Amino acid sequence: MSKITTKPFVVPRITASGLPIDSLVINLRNLEDQAMRVCATVNRYFPYMETEGEILYKEEVLLSPHSGTTHLVYGFHASDNLRVVVEGDVKDPEGAGTGVEVWLVIGNNGVPFEPSSLYRHSDFIELYD
């Protein structure tokens, strides 16, 4: 079992095209020969407070073998400080081994997305317990 995370990031108020940002899309892709299970957690952190982040969303997903991309779409408030953690059968950020590939975008209903808020699988950081 692996666990990967983004760094905490501030959600911009608008996209580069001027549209308000209203959704976070976590994309999961399983290209393996067996079913894979992952759990995605979206945490919100409060600036200047020494508290743990609150869990906004937590969803467990079972991905069929050779499945296309599964999209998890979540809403939030502009200027939130978010962090996304995905654990389970995920590839390490270097892409070695087997598992689910993860990437996420933030945008206006997922499209168009804000380029500064694109996290490719290789942008995630591996967490160790």
Q: Could you walk me through the main structural features you see in this protein, from its secondary elements to its overall organization?
A:
This protein is mostly beta strands. It has one domain (about 1-125): Hypothetical Protein Tm1070, Chain: A. It is about 0% helix and about 45% strand. It contains no helices and 9 strands. Strand 4 (about 35-45) and strand 5 (about 55-65) form a beta hairpin. The radius of gyration is 15 Å and the shape is globular. The protein starts with a strand and ends with a strand.
Helix and strand succession?
EEEEEEEEE
At the fold tier of CATH, the topology name is Hypothetical Protein Tm1070, Chain: A
Shape: globular
Q: Which regions are unreliable across 5 or more consecutive residues at pLDDT < 50?
A: none
Structural Rg: 15 Å
Helical amount: under 10%
What count of helical segments does DSSP give? Answer: 0
Assign the CATH class: Mainly Beta
Overall number of structural domains: 1
Largest beta-sheet details: 6 strands, antiparallel
N-to-C CA distance: 11 Å
CATH architecture: Sandwich
User: Mean pLDDT score, rounded?
Assistant: 86
Sheet-strand content, in percent, reads 35-45%
Give the topology.
Blueprint: E1 2-5, E2 9-10, E3 23-29, E4 36-45, E5 54-63, E6 69-74, E7 81-88, E8 101-107, E9 125-126
Antiparallel strand pairs: 1-7, 1-9, 2-7, 3-6, 3-8, 4-5, 4-7
Question: Notable features of this structure?
Answer:
single chain; Hypothetical Protein Tm1070, Chain: A
Summarize the structure.
The chain has no helices and nine strands.
